Amino acid sequence: MKTTANAATRRAGAIGWAIAMFAMTPVTAQTLAPQTLGSAPLCEASAALLIDCPGTAGRCLLVGDNEEEASLFWFRLGDQGIDPTSQRKVALKDTKLGDIEALTGLANGRIVAFGSHSRDSVCTPQKKRQRFGVIDRLTGKSANVAVTQSGPIDCGNLFGKPLPDQPLIRSACQAIEAAENAAEKAAKQGAKARKECNQAHAYNAEGAVNVSRTGGPDIWIGLRAPLLPHPAGKKGVDLAMLLHLRGLDAYAFDRVAALDLGGFGVRELSYADGWVWVIAGPPHDLGQKDALRFKLMRFRADLLGADKIIVPETIRSDLPSSSEGLAVLADKILVLIDGSKATKEQPDQCATPAGIVTLPRPASAMP
Predict the structure, then answer these.
(1) What is this structure's pTM?
(2) pLDDT per position as a tens digit, 292-303
(3) Which one of 50, 154, 215, 267 has the lowest number of neighbouring Cβ atoms within 10 Å?
């Protein structure tokens, strides 16, 4: 969620991996008007996943809130999309997952929830964010969670020692360590570090997708930050990274994919009908007056196996700022918008409610 490498630092050094691009065709966008999603304590919707409804028939939307460390929320889905009055809360038993920014499903109905593994707004590492949990099939009002605690964000923990001799992994390692070094430098300023921390683009994972066509997991984690310097040296078009999770026993990766999102990072991932869908947004936090629009994009999942820069198709380029949840249905697309948590003065009311935009699925993107 919060944080992100100094651009000049990250571009230092030559990155010599030669890669071809897959280009696709953009689709015209229209003006969007979010509607309110649910109510407090769900305020900062940050992740979404389509699931079988807990304890009953039908399909539901599971929602994570990056300020709610011990619970998830779900809503019923109908012909018109989400039923905003059907909000239910599921408690995560005896555990906390900080800054939940990604949800993905497994073949047996289990769910994996990922903390962002990011730092706070002044670049202090947060152990509760450096976790992921495998959740049993949701039933009733609670769920058992098997939590895995991650180590510090560095190349050894993420990719193993010795570092694999893969050009993309080595380039990713260089970008991540440069960003973490910039964040460590900012953190030394204490409470004054907010601006420098936001510019550091430290490690921040937002989005996870299981593209498995078999029973075993095949999970890719999307990075909002840092970005990877473009191998051709193109300015303003640094690349987003997807990291392939080695297994469910550790937060460790064995492959890297590079996405050309026009200089944006990953804000959310979803999988449907052989396609990976992406919400793309800036790697840094936006100010209250910033009006930068996010993008909705997609690419074929089988491109993840090639050592090439993937250039996704742009579906829309007008998503509201802070679009952070995504679910793709047969005929529509649900985009969730991050809000602001309740204040001490009004603990039962979101300072800014979470939002939802329901989009028609374009004819060219139908299953």
Answers:
(1) 0.90
(2) 899 999 999 999
(3) 215
